[in-house]
Amino acid sequence: MTTPTHEDLAQRLRDAYTSGAVAPMRDGLGPVDVAGAYAVQTLNTRYWQAQGRRIVGRKAGLTARAVQMQLGVDQPDFGVLFEDMRIADGGHLDPATCLQPKVEAEIAFVLGADLPDPQSTPEQVAAAVTSVHAAIEIVDSRITDWKIAFADTVADNGSSAFFVLADAGKPLDGLDIWTAGMVMQINGAIVSLGVGAAALGHPLKAAAWLAQTLAARGEPLRAGDVLLAGALGPMVTLTPGDRVEAFVGGLGSCAFTYAKG
What we know:
The chain is α+β, with helices and mostly antiparallel strands. Helix content is 26%, strand content 30%. The strands form two sheets. Strands 1, 2, 3, 5, 6, 7, 10 and 11 form an eight-stranded mixed β-sheet that branches. The longest helix is centred in the N-terminal third of the chain and has 17 residues, at 34-50. It is globular. 45% of the residues are buried. The model has no long low-confidence stretch (mean pLDDT 95).
């Protein structure tokens, strides 16, 4: 259930994309107000859909236990991926479209079947996956200085912004994405290291949590959806001109440049 306060907060976040970051939303959301935060996120999702934006998948966030402990929560969160958030592998991201962006390397799945079961297992998710990709997520916050509580990031669409998928996806069968190592470089220097197990213990566990959560909300993942399974290592701040490349063992790499194309 949404309230006028939720409507006001949703408007505040939409305006922040063009007017600049806003203070944490303690006047309308408690730090761990899960229901209220998702109500705000849903209002903006519906608004953007009405404006013609098309949903192409979902992202899982807060999948690392260390980050959960930082924010005082015991669960991951999710956000919506829109078609206009995708950057071509090797493409450019205009700094004018971001506020305070950071990057993190991830594993992404593209689904070949629906996942309507609120009890979806990692095995069911695996059976629905048509391809696996190295990925980069560009996260951004509409909250000043990233001073976010759990409710802030959820309301703010999971602090999402843009994403990159490697052009060349791989079949899941035969891949070891649990121990797959990740290296992320900016301008040729290593800035983040990680492993598949960082995503909620296994990327397929993160994907199953997302499938269960969305199915229980009546918004199940569908064939063709992109699913970002969560960061494999620390996120790193972007500076205009940066070239970012992420390598994931067994999956290859993807890259983009943070500059106007």
